[in-house]
Every structure is written in C-alpha cells, then in structure tokens.
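Listing 4. Sequential folding, example run.
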Amino acid sequence: MKRLYPQSLVKQFQFPNTPKFNEFDISAEFNSKGGFWFKEDLNNIKPDEGDIFWTICHELIHGLGFYNGWMGYKNNPIAVIPLPIYVNPDGIVLKNNLFSFGSSFIEFMMDKYTILLSNGTQISQFTQKLNTFFDEYKSNAFSDEFVNSSQFKFAQDLLVLATTPKSLGLLPRNSKNYSIDSFILETSIPFEQGSSLIHVDYKTYINTNDFLMTYNIIDGISTDNMILDNGNYSGGPIGPKLKQMMETFGYTTADNPNPYRPQPFKSPPSNVTSKPNINSGFRTEMIRNLNVLIIIVSLYLQIHRLLFNIRLT
C-alpha cells in the first residue's frame, strides 16, 4: 500500500536515514480581507467575523496530516476515488503527476486509520480493489474503461458511504470498540471535495470539546468562548478525540511521550534529494466567505516500508 505522509510527521519518526527535508513543513496564506477577528485587537468579535486563531489551529492540524485525497469522480460526482498519482521510478512525484489518471491511486496517511463504522473494515480495502483496475487496463482511455469496469462499483459504493451519515470514522490505535471509540468523519450530502471526509461530523462535534475539525467556523464567537461553552477542556481547542488521533498518527504529547513508530525504513535511493522549494508540497484551496486559504504541505511517500522523498515542482 502506498501512502503520502506529511514531512512534519516523518520528522517525528526520527528514522536513522532520511532524504533532505524541504525547508518548510507547512506554508499558509490567509486573505487579509477574509473578515477575521484578532484577539489582540481588544475589541469584541463581531457577528460577521471569524476568529483567526480558530482558523489557524484548524489548518495547522490539516497540515500535520489530518487530510486525505478522496475526490469526486466527474464534476457532478458519480463516484468517489482516491487521488491518482504517478510516482517516478526514483520516488519523486512532480506537480504534473498529481491527478494523473492512468496511474494508480495513492492514499494519504490518514486513510490508514479510516474505517467503515458499520463493521470496522478499513477503507484501504476499497483502494486495493480499485487499484486492480490498473492491472487490467494499460491504455490512456481511463474515463470510458473505468466507468465500464468491474472496479467502478467500488467507487460508487464509496460515494454512498461518503454521503451517508456516520458511515466512516477514524479509529485510534489500540481501540477496543470501533463503534464507540471512532472519530466520526463528515459525510453530509452532497459530497464536497475539500470538505467531506477531511473533517469530523459537524452535527456530532460542533457543540462538544472536539469542535475544531468540523468544516465550518462559526462567525461571531471566539475560540476561547467555544472552549468555555463546551466544557472548558484542558487541552484548549485540541479536543480529546483529536488529541488521541494525533497521537495515533505518531505525534508526541505529554500524555503519550512514546507514540507509535513504524519500523525503520530502508534508506532511500541515493539520487533522491529535496532542495528547499517554496512550491513543494500538496496544495489545497479552501474558501471561507471572502477568505481564500492556501495550505502547502511537504509530503513523503511510504511504499512497503521504503521512504521516498516527494518533491512537487
């Protein structure tokens, strides 16, 4: 199974041999006309303003790996598929290799922990089944052949799951009960690329201490007041389930100083390098009213315990 890992998480793993890292783990741009409220202004937040701190915390968590590449197939989605990417023989992924139909589907790190809440099945099983399409078809006529293939049914099934309430969730490591312990993902109708599946369920969590990773930032209320209104959790905006998932991903916390570490990867090919490049990373564009946010995350590819550097140029 191939998965993209954020550079920040790869650094947490502290492997003995890694490629040179990009200069920045995460780069972000925020529109100055986005209607943000800054606590430092000492003015009360207005009904049409969003707390910039809430936005920054939310996007930081995305940049640290709370993200995946599931996308709608066709403009008015008739199915959902993982991100198709072509990986060069040397392990480098060029910017033009993203959305490379005709190449295999590649998961993001978060997909490793995404399950069906009905039975605990990993969503990766769908990716594996979808990728058998590329074993059968080698031509560039992806669209027609894929829609008519036996594998297309799995993509249609994914669309149903992605638009069925409480159908998918994130399972923390060492969980004893997936139906209780899972962090429920956003699966509202219609499927919205950049919103569905990369956020937690709005109705379930917006009025809890795990409000941070819902898809909608509420105007007119500060982050501090959201925390107070939802139980004054000691972790601030990082709620208990979110904290547990970040620990599951591999991040160290005071309560979990020795998180999961993959077995050491083999050394990458000697010709794999990563010169600092402000254009490196996976670009996502998210629109919140007038606020256009661009997050650029440096990513690495894990392939069967081999670590390769990804450079998007």
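-- end of first protein; second protein begins --
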Amino acid sequence: PQKVGLWGHSMAGNISMRTAATKPEIPAVVIWAGAGYTYADLLSYRISDTSFDPVQSNSSRLRKREQLRKLYGDPDVAKPFWQQLAPVNYLNDLQGSIQLHHAADDSVVDVRYSRDLNELLGKTSVPHEFYEYETGEHNIAGVNFDTAMQRTVDFYKKYL
C-alpha cells in the first residue's frame, strides 16, 4: 500500500481513521469535516445532519445496537470494549500522516471534532496538518474549496 491514500468527508472521515487504525502503514489520510473520533466528543458535539434517517424501532440495525448495549453497556471510554473501538486509541501506531480540513461555520459537524483530533495528534509523532477555514460550511465550499483541494493534492504528492 505504498501508494494508497485515504480521503474521507464527514462520517467517512471517521471510517478513514478507523481504517488507518487497522492498517497503520497507510501513508496518507486526508479528512474533510470529519466526526466521531472519541465517544466523549460524539456525546458533547453530536451531529446535526438534517438528512439523517433515524433508526426505525423494528429495524435490524436497532436490534443490533440494542444487543451491543446489553452486552457492553452504553459507550464509555472507561470500559475496555469501547476503548478498543475508538480510533484515537491507536494514533501512536500510525506510520503515515494525517491532514485535517474543517470550516468553522460547519453546522453539520462541529469544528471542535477536528480541533480535538489535531490536539491528540500533537501528542504523537504522527506528521499532521490542520487547516481551519472561516467559511465553507460542511463541504468546505465557496472561496476556500480550491485552497483546501490544492492542499489535499500537495499533501498526497508529498506523502504518496
């Protein structure tokens, strides 16, 4: 995987972090407006996505979620099971680099998710970059899009 890089937006940023935790040799991960790296952040900041379709009471997904809660309780970082699921617990194992982008006016995913992840990365030897844009909303649209995209391309050129 010397030339494989990951790019994730929003919850796909979370998936990218989880993938990097399981494949720490991935050389470059870029996340735009990512969320849900720690359970504490998820409980504090939530996600305000109007397109979210809540789980129906009779769905298979809800039954599986309830089964997990019965076995392991609610998400709690003090419990070993939940510790193992949080991708930030594997940051020190990463061999690649991470770049984060987030707009301060994102009304879907709070910018504090990225700020907190950047702070955690600062306590490791993982090469990382964090870019916060004043505007751009959840998709980093408008005047900051070209800058964010160029930074992403440059990051991949550097690390892939």
